[in-house]
């Protein structure tokens, strides 16, 4: 029998003790013979480390130490990795049953840099709240991430070659580091879809993509502007600015005026801004 490719999954975590055990179990319970699992904790002050220690004999590598944020933790994890196929699973997301076999059995040609399965956003009761429709996975389509072609990050896996070519993650990006990676991969490799549910992303009050949606859109828009898609970026930020102005009274009542002002600034930054990314 041909040996199965090694799949590495990295879980970055910080003070996610409420969720991380389910994340870990969703990885360790995969019926896959060649799995490497790495957990990078950012010196959590809750019970996260106690949970991780419960599975010490099953996790290939873990550490709990200060880092520079989520992207830095993921980069540190992949530096320790040896897998042929890579992916990361945040500590409040989880894989569905026996999905790594599907990932491994995909036709990973030299041209394929990443594959994207079906991902769902779910609530605390596992009720599906949102499932993105992914019409295209080209570089041009991914530039219009906010309003056109996007997918759930935990449902994406990429090749070692793609990571070595396009990585590491940009630690200066707080919300859109994954989109930056997808764009860099898509410039040189093909993205492919697999019609199979892969992962769930949990919606909760402390999830960045849920609690700070406005910041996600703003940073993503600035990123794609740097890639040269200025019209798309301006469209996104114009919509967001109109939204913020419409609800500015609510921001004032919530005493979030500094946040409002912070989010209104990027539209001005886009005027005649030139691309910084080659």
Summed up, what is this model?
The protein is α/β, with parallel strands linked by helices and 278 residues long. The chain is built from 13 helices and 9 strands.
Describe the structure in your own words.
The protein is α/β, with parallel strands linked by helices. Helices cover 39% and strands 20% of the residues. It is built from 13 helices and 9 strands. Strands 1, 2, 3, 4, 5, 6, 7, 8 and 9 form a 9-stranded mixed sheet that branches. The N and C termini lie far apart (43 Å).
Write the layout of secondary structure elements.
Layout: E1 7-13, H1 20-28, E2 35-41, H2 48-54, E3 61-64, H3 70-79, E4 85-88, E5 93-95, H4 100-105, E6 112-122, E7 128-130, H5 139-143, E8 156-159, H6 160-166, H7 177-188, E9 190-202, H8 208-211, H9 213-226, H10 230-246, H11 248-253, H12 257-264, H13 266-269
Parallel strand pairs: 1-2, 1-4, 2-3, 6-9
Antiparallel strand pairs: 4-8, 5-9, 6-7, 6-8
Helix pairs in contact: 6-7, 9-10
Note the main sheet: 9 strands, mixed
How would you describe the shape?
globular
Structurally, the number of domains stands at 2
Number of helices: 13
Overall CATH class of the largest domain: Alpha Beta
Average pLDDT for all residues: 88
Q: What's the N-to-C terminus distance?
A: 43 Å
Order of helices and strands: EHEHEHEEHEEHEHHEHHHHHH
CATH architecture descriptor of the largest domain: Alpha-Beta Complex
Total E-strand runs: 9
Contiguous low-pLDDT stretches (5 residues minimum) are: 270-278
Radius of gyration of CA atoms, rounded to a whole number: 19 Å
SS-based structural class? Answer: alpha/beta
| CATH homologous superfamily assignment of the largest domain | Spore Coat Polysaccharide Biosynthesis Protein SpsA, Chain A
| Helical content class | 25-40%
Proportion in β-strands: 15-25%
The third-level CATH topology of the largest domain is Spore Coat Polysaccharide Biosynthesis Protein SpsA, Chain A
């Amino acid at each position: 029998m041909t040996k199965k490719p090694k799949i590495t999954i990295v879980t970055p975590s910080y003070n996610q003790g409420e969720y991380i055990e389910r994340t870990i179990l969703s990885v360790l319970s995969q019926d896959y013979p060649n799995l490497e699992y790495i957990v990078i904790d950012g010196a959590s002050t809750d019970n996260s480390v106690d949970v991780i220690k419960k599975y010490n004999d099953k996790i290939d590598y873990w550490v709990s130490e200060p880092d520079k944020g989520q992207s830095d933790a993921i980069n540190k994890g992949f530096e320790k990795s040896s897998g042929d196929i890579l992916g990361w699973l945040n500590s409040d997301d989880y894989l569905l049953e026996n999905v790594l076999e599907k990932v491994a059995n995909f036709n990973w040609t030299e041209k394929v840099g990443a594959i994207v399965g079906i991902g769902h956003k779910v609530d605390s009761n596992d009720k599906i709240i949102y499932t993105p429709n992914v019409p295209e996975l080209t570089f041009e389509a991914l530039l219009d991430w906010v309003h056109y072609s996007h997918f759930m990050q935990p449902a994406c896996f990429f090749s070692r070659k793609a990571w070595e070519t396009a990585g590491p993650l940009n630690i200066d990006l707080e919300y859109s580091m994954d989109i930056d990676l997808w764009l860099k991969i898509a410039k040189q490799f093909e993205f492919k879809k697999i019609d199979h549910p892969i992962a769930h992303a949990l919606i909760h009050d402390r999830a960045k993509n849920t609690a700070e949606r406005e910041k996600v859109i703003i940073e993503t828009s600035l990123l794609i502007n740097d890639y040269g898609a200025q019209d798309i970026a301006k469209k996104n930020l114009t919509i967001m600015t109109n939204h913020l102005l419409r609800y500015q009274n609510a921001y004032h009542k919530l005493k979030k005026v500094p946040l409002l002002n912070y989010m209104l600034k990027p539209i001005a930054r886009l005027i005649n801004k030139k691309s910084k990314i080659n």
